[in-house]
Amino acid sequence: MSLKFDFNNMFSSSVGDHGVSQQDLDEILPEAQLCAAHLKKIIANPQARVNLGLEWTNLFQQDKEEIAKIQKLGGQISQKYENVVFLGIGGSYLGLKAAQEALCAPYYNEFKTSRKKNPRIYLEGNNLDPDTLQVLLKNLNPKKTFVIVISKSGETTEPKAAFALVEAWLKKGVGKKYGRQILAITDPQSGALRAKVEREQEKDSLSFRAFPILKGVGGRFSEFNMGLIHLAIVGVNITKLFSGVKEMSDRCGQADILKNPAYMYALLHTILYRKKAKSLAILMPFSQTLKSTADWYVQLLAESLGKKYHRKIQVGIDGSENWLADEKSLFSKGRTPISAAGTNDLHSIQQNNVEGEDNKVLTFIRVDKFKTDLRIPGKGDLLSGKSFSSLMHLAQEATEWALASENRPNCTIIMPEVSAYNWGALLFFFEMATAFEGELLNINAFDQPGVEGYKNYMYYKLGKPGIAQPIIEAIKNNPLIKDPKLIL
């Protein structure tokens, strides 16, 4: 069975004036068809995919020999080491964490039976809090630890700082061949980390092995690129994962938008955003193993759609496109994503969802079949004899009802089970929906200029050479001002 998208509660027939009407749908369809045709044209052109940041749409068709190589190396690392430490931030952290929780057993690191002889997995390099990394390095044995650093440039502060410490720790604990316990996933041609890989491999060909971050694949869209070695190490079948991605890709390639699940998801949310001021997007999986997938989606939606300017398309004489920020057309919008989890968050944000400001749309993920189940013992109690899975399904249904009865729009993604096949399909569904929503909003969904602000400020304060003069002037002319009177 395949993923299904249930959007009954998005329509006015279920939630009144706060839902989408047939007229709303009819009005946007001509625009949506043009957007779909534009996106299809780009995806069909290999050079355009790379140039505009859509090569992720083709990752499930990666070379089979390369996938076999990754799967083999992952198995070797898994057999030889007790611990694997990943260093990365953004998609290089959130994608791995989402995969770890969805596709590995709960309490994976705590119990050998959960790991099935695979190594413990630790995710670091995603913040600058000294306490977490210090505790990790203090308690791991460097001789039994493999390190994977993920950074396109090698210059991003968080993973760069963490890697400097971890590399020194390995070198001290392992000796001069410590580099054989390091794998770098980075730009295939340029950047500080690529340069380091090449220097170290000149000394020792088995040191600092590397896989490429493919061109045209942005961090938040890169799980099926940089995340593959992690999947191989924990024993996930990459071929099955890609089969699920392909199936969803085929469904998302349908010409009829009304039968295209990802495009319908984007279309309905865009209507509710534009016409009904539904600016908050809450993703609430009713499966604890998918909570980190919801966290991954937060980055995907926020970085892709939260943009200051509309997109301006420059078309070359050969028909190639170049996307620029149209500084004459201010956008400064984009839905704000929030991750939650059923059922625990029914006792936190659900009160606001049902009775608070009516500015949100909830997406539930319902898992039809869990890997295991539990039945409540005893007789005579309301819960006696009930299974946990049936109660989870009932809670999700009840949450739908509670929202619909207050005319609050919501929708549900139905997942047959949490497997590599279905999880791959789920991520691709969200990626395609986000890409199509970017088209509908006429923005560039594949850059993130707003992220550069804090980076540039830090680089300036740290004295990094080569910062553009306009950036330096902007920081000098707009200093942070702290009035002591306003600090209590």
Your description of this structure?
A 5-stranded mixed β-sheet has the order 1-12-11-7-10, with helices on both faces. α2 crosses α13 (261-276) and α14 runs parallel beside α17 (420-441). The protein has helices at 12-15, 22-44, 46-52, 64-80, 91-103, 112-115, 130-139, 157-174, 192-203, 223-226, 228-233, 238-252, 261-276, 291-305, 350-355, 388-404, 420-441, 452-462, 469-477, and strands at 4-6, 83-87, 120-124, 145-150, 182-186, 209-212, 280-285, 307-315, 321-333, 336-339, 360-369, 410-417. It starts with a strand and ends in an 11-residue tail after the last helix. The relative contact order is 0.14. The model has no long low-confidence stretch (mean pLDDT 96). By secondary structure, it is of the alpha/beta class. α16 links the parallel β11 (360-369) and β12.
